[in-house]
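REVIEWER CHECKLIST
Item 1: Sequence provided? yes
Item 2: Single chain? yes
Item 3: Sequence as submitted:
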Amino acid sequence: MSITTAGRIASAPTTVDCPAWCVIDHSEDPWIGTEDFFHRGEEVNVPAPPGARPQYAEPLLSTHLVDHSNNPEWSCIAIGNSDRGFDLETIEQADAYLAQLKKYTAAVEEMRNRLAAIKENQA
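Item 4: Structure as written out by the authors:
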């Protein structure tokens, strides 16, 4: 499903077919031209849990989908921010990253269980 929205390209009014997952308000998007605009999905963040030390203002993990208008090489899953991030440009890269996240999650769960045992012994 797509949404048709009013926007401006090179200061001229136009309409754009926008996928339903896009969160950009293209009516406020200062596009340079039809060759240079993109759709962006909602950002998903993983912050540090409440009470963790230290607390960071920025999330530990963040990601969003980007679909460039005319350049498939710029369609990707953006991981992290521009200072410390990377783009997943292929399904294979996304699958490999997901596999790494699953291993990471399993390792954190194991550490959590060990911590629970330590805390139980300390009580």
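Item 5: Key structural point noted by reviewer: The first strand starts at residue 2 and ends at 9.
Item 6: Recommendation: ____
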